[in-house]
Amino acid sequence: GQPSSDSAVDAGQHETPVAELVPTLKSLKTNLAYRYDDLKRMPSFVETDAAISTSVCDLNIQPSYEFRSKRVNLLVMASRGASYAMARFATRGDRWLEFAKGCCTVNFPRATASSVLGGIRVTPAYDFLQNEASCKVEATTGTQRTKAVLDLESRNPTVSIVHALDERHTIAPVISLRDAKITYQWSIALSSGSIRAKVDPTSAVYLTWTDKSTRGTWVTDLRLPLEGTTVAALSADVQIRRQFVF
Questions:
Q1: Tens-digit pLDDT profile for residues 106-129
Q2: What span, in angstroms and rounded, lies between the C-alpha atoms of 153 and 161?
Q3: Which residue among 70, 89, 157, 183 is buried most deeply as judged by most CB within 10 Å?
């Protein structure tokens, strides 16, 4: 016998539209970086970032070119929700694959504002150039305002507590597991960018100011030493760079 009309309708509802199978270009932007102390008459590097959406995952493809070394780099990342996998390739050197990283995020559906644990994120990585492995484990509370981070980096493993004071201000003391040194981080979200400060009581204060505009972003980096006896040793190091968006 022939299938009923109801069965035909049900089968048609499970068919995937062709439009959902075709990748869609979500955005395309280009950044041009220039450092006067690097190449005075040429930019330092140029990079392009293409964001593509598919029915399976979102893709980010970022090729870049370094003018001094004449090296072509390629960064590829596939993401779905808060989980992702990425790899970085290069045309110069002994290895084509330089770096690989993954991230798996698990959120507890029954977590509430009073829950001690709201979710866990595990981020392993491997540097093929240095033959070094690392892993970061993050645990957040039910309110999502406080996060404990265990960073098992081979050179400088750390543990930190990140706490959002409000919607704009975030503080984070960081303790080194190698020598017990403590640094302090403070982030401020602005209407057109952000300010990030890092205080190392034994060396310097680091400040990064990001100011977004219609055509791109201005980034200012400031380093203020806290040690030294001469004027030259205590002078601040300031770098300003411009990122263009096309």
A1: 888 766 666 678 889 999 999 998
A2: 17
A3: 183
Phi, psi of 9 (to 5 degrees): -65, -40
- Tell me if 67 sits within 8 A of 51, measured CB to CB: no
Identify the bridge partners of residue 99 per DSSP, sorted by sequence position: 88, 127
DSSP state of 201: T
Residue 238's Cα: distance from chain center in Å?
23
- Grouping H, G, I as helix, E, B as strand and the rest as coil, residue 55 is coil
Distance CA 66, CA 47 (A): 9
* Residue 125 near residue 100 (C-beta atoms within 8 A): yes
How many other C-beta atoms lie within 10 A of the C-beta of residue 50?
A: 15
**Number of residues that this document lists for the chain:** 246
Question: In this structure, are residues 119 and 112 in contact, taking their beta carbons and an 8 Å threshold?
Answer: no
The verdict on pTM exceeding 0.85 is no
On whether the CB atoms of residues 159 and 148 are closer than 8 A, the answer is yes
Judged by DSSP in three states, 186 sits in strand
Residue 9, judged by CB atoms within 10 A of its CB (0-12, 13-18, 19+), counts as exposed
CA 209 to chain centre: 17
